[in-house]
Design a protein that fits this description.
This protein is an alpha/beta fold. Helices cover 56% and strands 11% of the residues. It has 9 helices and 5 strands. It has a 5-stranded parallel sheet with strand order 2-1-3-4-5, with helices on both faces. The structure holds CO-5-methoxybenzimidazolylcobamide (B1M).
Length: 211
C-alpha cells in the first residue's frame, strides 16, 4: 500500500515530520495501528538495519531513522494501548548494561501496557545492581531484559545471578529478548521465558506469568 511504503521511506530518511504526518493520514484512512507499526515503521527500520549491515548507511543515518521511529511510536502509542484497563501485573523492563538499543524494548513496553501491565522502564545501559534495586522497590511480577548486541547478552545472565545472590530470584519471572537472543540461550542462563517479538512477549506475560 502506497501510504505505508511512503511511511517506510520517510522513516528511512529520518524525516520526523513526514513520519508523523504519514501516521495521521494512515489512521484517518482507517489503517490499523498494527498495520502502520509493522508494515510502515518496522519495515523502514528493518531496511535500514539491512543497509547498516552492508555498510550502505552508517551510525548517523541509523540514529536519525531511530529518532523518527521513536517519534512515530509515541504517536501510535495511545492507539495501541487500550485505555481504562486495570493493571493485571507489574513489569520492570530495561536494556542491559553496555547496550543502548531501545526501540525493540520500547515496543515490548508498549505491547505490555496494551495488554494491561503497569510497566516500569529503567531505560538503557541498566546494570544488574539497578535491576535488583528496582525488583526490591517495585516488586514486579516480571523482569524484562532486552539485549541487541552479542557482547551484551551475557549481562542477562549477570542479572539473573544478581537476583539469586540477593535471594529474590524466586519472586519474579525473568523474560528475555532481542535480536541475537534465542530460546536456547534463555534456557541456558535460567530465564523463565524468551519472546521473539513484542506481541509474543505480551502474550507470554499475560498467559503464563499472571493469573
Ligand atoms: Co546497532 N547494532 N549498534 N544501533 N543496530 C545492531 C543491533 C546490529 C545487528 C547491526 C548490524 O551490524 N547488522 C549490530 C549488532 C551486531 C551483534 O552484536 N551481533 C549493531 C552494532 C554493532 C552497533 C554498534 C556497536 C555500532 C557501532 O557503534 N559501531 C553500536 C552499539 C551501541 C551500544 O549499544 N553500546 C550500535 C548503535 C546503534 C544506534 C545507536 C545507531 C541505533 C540504536 C538507536 C536506539 O535504539 N535508540 C542502532 C540500531 C537502530 C540498530 C539496528 C539497525 C536496528 C535495531 C532496531 O531497533 N530494530 C540493528 C540492526 C538490526 O537489528 N537489523 C543494530 C528494530 C526493533 C523493533 O527490533 O530491537 O530486534 P529489535 O526488537 C524486537 C525483538 O528483538 C524483540 O521484540 C522487538 C519488537 O518485535 N525484543 C524483545 C527486543 N527486546 C525484547 C525484550 C523482550 C522480548 C522481546 O522481553 C523482555
Amino acid at each position: 500500500m502506497e501510504l505505508l511504503k511512503k511511511l517506510s521511506e520517510d522513516l528511512q530518511a529520518g524525516d520526523v515530520e513526514a513520519v508523523k504526518e504519514g501516521i495521521t493520514k494512515a489512521l484517518d484512512e482507517g489503517l490499523t495501528p498494527r498495520e502502520i507499526l509493522y508494515d510502515g515503521l518496522m519495515d523502514g527500520m528493518s531496511i535500514i538495519g539491512e543497509k547498516f549491515k552492508k555498510n550502505e548507511v552508517f551510525v548517523p543515518e541509523v540514529l536519525i531513522a531511530a529518532r523518527a521511529m521513536n517519534a512515530g511510536m509515541e504517536l501510535l502509542k495511545p492507539k495501541l494501548i487500550e485505555t481504562g484497563v486495570e493493571s493485571i501485573g507489574k513489569v520492570v523492563i530495561g536494556t542491559v548494561k553496555g547496550d543502548l538499543h531501545d526501540i525493540g524494548k520500547n515496543l515490548v513496553k508498549m505491547m505490555l501496557e496494551g495488554a494491561g501491565f503497569e510497566v516500569h522502564d529503567l531505560g538503557t545501559d541498566v546494570s544488574a545492581e539497578d535491576f535488583v534495586a528496582a525488583v526490591k522497590e517495585i516488586q514486579p511480577d516480571i523482569v524484562g531484559l532486552s539485549a541487541l548486541l552479542t557482547t551484551t547478552m551475557p549481562q542477562m545472565k549477570n542479572v539473573i545471578s544478581a537476583l539469586k545472590e540477593e535471594g529474590i530470584r524466586d519472586r519474579v519471572k525473568v523474560m528475555v529478548g532481542g535480536a541475537p537472543v534465542t530460546d536456547n540461550y534463555a534456557k541456558e542462563i535460567g530465564a523463565d521465558a524468551y519472546a521473539k517479538d513484542a506481541a509474543t512477549a505480551a502474550t507470554i506475560a499475560k498467559e503464563r506469568f499472571v493469573s
